[in-house]
Amino acid sequence: MATQAEEDLSGVAAEQADLIRVRLLRNMSPHTLSSLLAVERDAFPECERLGNYMQELSMQRNNGLVIAEDHRPPPGTPPGAFPAPLAEPQGFLLFSRTAEAGVIMKIAVAAAFRGRGVGTALLR
Question: pLDDT tens for residues 78-88?
Answer without folding.
Answer: 766 655 555 78
